[in-house]
């Protein structure tokens, strides 16, 4: 067995790999064919609605994975992950805004809101916004850097537990208020919308949609494997130890702050990437993504799916958001009851989430 | 064990509910047309938008009772975008592509409209937007049945400047920090300047969303008003109005000293307020519930009956307001346009919309402009009465044409007064 | 209102020569003229001092004057009388039109009526009248004011009246009288005097002064500075009060959380909704009073306070019994469950009461304010809330330190296992403590209903702030909560006057984040030897 094979078997067993391969096949082969090659009249055709909806949920799933990494594996509950997600979205959104070119309402080669503010040239933070590569880097750098700085101080002063949760909440709340301001230069409450192109290719074509969809799917699977690799490594075991008894780990000579800082930053970067993929698919990014409620919801996806299992995080994001999409249509007046009760019941009866339920099933069967 | 049966029970229940829905659908008449209603029923905007959903449903019911649109019964598809802007876009796409609705009535906030706009343009849908807004936009696929700034803000300020309105010399432009207040205030600032008001006599202030502590703001207004006859132009959004007005009343700032004119405060917003200390403060709208007109009386009666019949919350004190009227006009104009075009096809309906007229509850014959997708509207200025209604103290001679591109914003003079086809799409 | 009217009429009767009917031409102008004519008519009618004129003006202000053709009528209920002659018109004509009273007319009527009230025998009426006139009077009132000034002997009212006379004389011709008037105005602390003085020192765009007389100008400058200094103090006092007021509201919102979260470790995201339930309870109590005891309406709040406490406490205890009980020791999971509960509660309220805000009226004794300085009005509602917050704080302190339940709560907080060993029924204590915390939220809701709106989203606005207060203060510490709430209130208000509301909030949030880095356990950390709580 070569080192690669042993690494692969460490991540998942044969069944797991088969499942992943199947998912990949569906995402990269079946979906594109159904969306592009099958005519719209056919019942098997996948419409743009489904492509964007599933694309959006996959973005959420990446966020859920990132959340699960720090909460499920390192025991840090962040109530501010929406901020990193939004920052990634904004970074990429800036590029998309520039790609609109002169097709905005004012027909000037500048985003509408800047024309409106009477800005004659781009402010400093928009200096690189014309370059795809630069903004793509910023998608990673901005959330990563913010998380690093914030985490550095917070973990150094050993802010933990609920205190940490609350100050992350304060952070995202402050950022939301900041981004709401028109003069901050991010379009205020309206944020960015009405995107036209990526790399010069119109965004509304089916091909572009499927391309984004496939990229999102690839990132999702990549994230899953990467995180699986992290949590099954020695590093991952130290993380779990920190989660379960941080004092002891410290007394064993580990600098827990470094470990926490590393996963925290990684988690923020993943959120940023998810945000960047999310924006072109849903077509809008605005400060409400940073509202504390959105960040709490991220934690709920993970809890519903099952903390400490990566598959659970994906499942949770899919279930909750799927339910939301269905219920807001099927019972517009009552869906909040359903969603609210779902959260209560899950925490009460399924402390390990849906994955816990499945595991119990499996145990019962054997 | 118990738990499992419970889970099964719920699943069965949900499936049963789904089946019931399906069979209902099948039982419905074959000749129906689906129409979307896209208003938040939960989240922060539910407070304002829920009633528009009910108004739309009332209008549909009324049309169906009279034989429908071209003989087609309207089948409303109500969705809840939950005050979540990306969800607005998703739901809009769903309504157009999955439900294949002929038209959508919805949105309140500017950001929700901005969010769905690309979807409607891409899929060539049809949106009727019933709320006053900041202008600076014109889309082929949207009909704006609310007021543009020149149909609300500018007449109100002109009135306050007049001797009748108190001859205000200094101005506090107070708003919630988002695009509608910012744009409106920008237009007003330019307008005031054109009338010779100096910059030092204009104080622009913004508060965050959901701001509830107006002590400092009111104290500042007081201080500012010591410098000369002052009027406040308020574009405070939704919920924040109540604490603002309560503070105003309690700090003893009376309308005779410093009148406040608001663009987002109507009958429905005052429902939650004790209006006695607010008598005399103003609002500018294109419709007031207190307008004396037979069409309005009928509209009010219909709404009261509908609210009672459906046991809507607040049916004990049924109120009508401007966005409700705008929704109602929009629905009827759509019906007329469909009947004129003899088709539900978006492009044909858009063409037929031009020049449609409707006898509006506000007592005028409202006309859809031939070109710019906005209604011609009369402007009314009302003073708050002790019972929460408005006393109309001024109105325009007749309907005013909307200027979505305000001449008070630099660069707009070049804009065409009709939607442009976006060239870059292809 | 009615008695006041009688007083006015009596006062006016003293002043006036008996008259059979009001000047028909004036009355017609009042009813049918344009606004200028109407204002003219109002002032002319007031200057007659005729009690009938006062009655007519009062009716006009109440919106009871209508016109039918050329005839001006006063319509009360279904009875109409002719405004000029006072004879009854039976039956009332059908095609009547309201005489619309706008702000301008309302202002004119108010000062005209006030001028008439200046000679009322009742001191309070006179005081109110002179205060009204200080806000701005029409020069045509000058004779009335002077007449009143001759008769006035009250040491409080007389100087105020002089001030009014001064303002009226300011625009008059005589140079010496004007300078004297300006000097008198300099003694005032009323912001309106600033409005009067400013034009005297203003420079026109072409560089000349609006006021030609230099002496007048210099005097005006002096007086203006004196007035501004005085106003400055008022502003500072106002700021201080605003800070305390915001602090007291934050404190009320956070106190319940300090118990449920600080003492019990439950992250209750539904705390905001318990506040909302308290507010809605107040609304329901108010409606019950309005329906069944309209006479005692002003007392509804007294009943609403215990009701709000009880309802919120009951809901809280029910939640504790059915949901939270199973989640102790898993604090972060209580967050998720209570978040779900909050969604359900919000939607439930929306279903029951509707998505719109409901109206909670201030009782009469809570509306308006007390004027401490001429430019500082402290609203009663805020004063009452500050006092209420202090009372609630004292109550909860007594509860925790002086009662058996408080002892148990503290015991369970410090060491659950040990408390249980010595026979404390920990489960029951949890329920009660949660009930108390929830009840406090209800009280906060009751208070908030008096200054803000009552709607399904009410609680959402306070939840983040409440958590910040508790965390900043230090979990498990009532004193910390108090300091944190007041500190945040002050900081917010100070910054707001300096940088605007939006930036102030951002700065405060960033400050909290930085502060927690410095003191990870909040202002007052739990004392103890454990490395970890």
Account of the 3D structure:
The complex is a heterotrimer of chains A (366), B (426) and C (533). By secondary structure, chain A is mostly helical. Chain A has helices at 3-11, 14-37, 48-73, 81-100, 112-116, 132-156, 161-180, 206-232, 234-244, 246-251, 256-282, 292-305, 310-330, 335-349, 353-365, and strands spanning 192-193, 197-198, 201-202, 284-285. Chain A has a two-stranded antiparallel sheet with strand order 1-4. A two-stranded antiparallel sheet of chain A has the order 2-3. Chain A starts with a helix and ends with a helix. The model of chain A has no long low-confidence stretch (mean pLDDT 90). Helices cover 39% and strands 16% of the residues of chain B. Chain C is mainly α and 533 residues long. Chain C has helices at 2-15, 24-32, 35-48, 51-61, 103-117, 123-134, 142-151, 157-170, 175-186, 191-201, 214-263, 271-292, 300-322, 331-353, 380-402, 404-414, 416-421, 426-448, 460-473, 478-499, 501-518; strands at 65-68, 71-76, 79-82, 88-89, 97-98, 369-373, 376-379. Chain C has a five-stranded antiparallel beta sheet. A two-stranded antiparallel sheet of chain C has the order 6-7. In chain C, a hairpin with a 5-residue loop joins β3 and β4 (88-89). The radius of gyration of chain C is 30 Å and the shape is elongated. The interface between A and C is large, with 45 and 46 residues.
Q: Main attributes?
A:
A: 366 residues; mainly alpha; two-stranded antiparallel ribbon; 15 helices; 72% helix; C: 533 residues; two-stranded antiparallel sheet; disordered C terminus
